[in-house]
Amino acid sequence: MPDSGLAVFEKDSFNAEKYVKELVQDCVGGPELQQTKAKIQSHSDTVSSTLKKHVYENYMQFIETAKEISHLESEMYQLSHILIEQRNLLSTLRDESMLDDQKYIIEDQSIDPNENEEQQNKKAIQLIKESLIGYKGNLDDKVFIHEGGLIELDPNDYRPICRIHLFLFNEILVLAKVKHDKKLEFLTEYDTKKIAVINIKDLDGVNKNAINVFTSDGARIFQCVNSASKLEWIDKFEVAIKFNQLKHKKGPAPQPPTTLNLKNRQQKSVDSEIMMTLSPTASEVAAAVVENLAPDWLASAPEEIQAEIAQRHFEDCLALVQKCEEYLVKDSSFRGAAEIREKIKGLKSTLSSVLMQELSNSQSRSLQAALRSSRRPLKLLVEMEKAREACGILLRVCSSAIRTSQRQARRNNLAVSELFFCDVAQVASEFLRAFSSKVSCTSALIVWCNMELQYFASQLIKHYLTKDTQLEMVARVVEGVRNPCSKLTDIGLDLSYHMEGLLRNTLEQLLEEAKFRLVDSIGRTEDVWQPYNLQTKTNLRSVLKEFDALGLDMKPLVTGDTWINLTQTSVNFCRHFLTTTESCAYLAKYDSLKQDAEQLLKELFLAQHAVKPHPSMSVDLNFIAKNKIYMGDVLLPIAIARFEKISDKKPELLMELQLQLRGPPKPKPRSVYQTDVL
């Protein structure tokens, strides 16, 4: 009898079926088998209760472990926060030490402070040119204003990128990279007339003492060594910007710093306290002075405007600028009004530059995305009376987007004409909506449309209307241009005549080449001058169906089961002549091409009509005459009708040809009972 203890069930080689068979064979009678079953059931209950106990213990241990993990996670978060603070602190200390180690180029050199300003400026520029590696520009006619070392930060996460040394002149800002050996390598330069500087508020040491400089390449963020250096850079940038803003006005231009302060570049502030006993008269004077100060909101407006620009709240920024301007128009008698007015004016110019840059940044997008993203800056620029500059930037962005989409369409074998005119319609609609109140900007749209049309026509000729292009393909391209171009009249743009003029010379050349090629192909294959046998009824039905689509019924010419009572050459020419007529009719919609298209058809028809069999051939002359009569009496009238239906113009040359083939009118037959004698 097999062992019924728990040990047997724990073996890896345990087989339940084998165990039951052995158990049944060894047990004697039913009672013994029932006892064994009860014992096994007892083992099962014991194992089940033990399993439940272990599951409960594991569950409790899991809960305790989860609590420990939660506490550990909280501690790790605190530790991570502490490490981040330490990293920021160390980074700040490192940056400040790096900037402290950065010496001024002019300060390291010996310049005699007793020299006049012009001599000092020349020496300073010479020292800067010697210290810059790779600079090829001209600094001789510039006025040096300020220099210093900064850290360039990543605009996304404010991570330090590299050490930068800036040289600020009255007309340009020169950027140089500080190499490991502390030499300066020239990077780039910007026109000070096209830059704007914004003060960035400190955010828990992440971007402490940083300024945002908007350039033609986008925004660049620089970190100064301390707040005093930051304020000094902002002041110097204002000097350079005002220098360019006022130099074309009457009166002297603003002067740069009178001396190059080589020994102390930190802004010095002297705090003084004045104690006085106010008499009643003095109190009144003091009260009058307090009342004559600017309102608090106006005094703090420049800083708020800078913050709004940095946070890209352009609508709120413009509203605050306009509010300040309106207040200054009503009341400018308070102290510091002129200074606030200049600050507001400079910030308004900065906002304009930022909006222009925002408008230009949509250049790499698709046309639809560019138009959507341009609505916000366009609306604000129009309100700021910058519509003329804004419309120029918008149209340049649209040109880039349209030409990019055209290249992709050609690459993917799409309909470029419909896409182009659809894009032009979108641009025109968006332009008219944005500048509805600025009628003077409409001329810019007209000029832009003409320029884009010229470029589109040149690309169309280059890629689709090349030499030896089949006439059918030429007609398809021209018709694909004409239809969407005519739809622009729905929005007030009629470019059809200009488009016709741009394509006229090319289409005339293609028509002339096609005429020479088609006429030259007539008679190259020798005709047997026998009825055309299609071999099978299926082929015959296919040919008849094809000619029905072209407007020519050949059923009266069918003889027998598979014969057409014309030569094979005549049948093929009928097909070819009708398709050529259709292509020429589409081209004849342009009045300038109608004469050339008709001339092609006339010469092609006459060339086939003049074909004769070789003198050595024995042919039925009546059959030859039947082919020619069919061409003149049936084919030519159908071609004339089809030409007139498509082009909506009567083909005078073909109608004259029809009259010539008919000959002079036949006299009416006279009755023997009639006489001309009175």
TrEMBL record:
Species whose genome carries this gene: Aedes albopictus (Asian tiger mosquito)
Domain Exocyst component Exo84 C-terminal span(s) in chain numbering: 297-495
InterPro entries, per database record: Cullin_repeat-like_dom_sf (IPR016159), Exo84 (IPR033961), Exo84_C (IPR032403), Exo84_C_1 (IPR042561), Exo84_C_2 (IPR042560), PH-like_dom_sf (IPR011993)
UniProt lineage: Eukaryota, Metazoa, Ecdysozoa, Arthropoda, Hexapoda
Family classification: Belongs to the EXO84 family.
Gene3D superfamilies reported for this sequence: Exo84p, C-terminal helical domain (1.20.58.1220), Exo84p, N-terminal helical domain (1.20.58.1210), Pleckstrin-homology domain (PH domain)/Phosphotyrosine-binding domain (PTB) (2.30.29.30)
Signal peptide span: none
Keywords, ordered alphabetically: Exocytosis, Protein transport, Transport
Pfam families cross-referenced by the UniProt entry: Exo84_C, VPS51_Exo84_N
Keyword Zinc-finger: no
Name of the protein in question: Exocyst component Exo84 C-terminal domain-containing protein
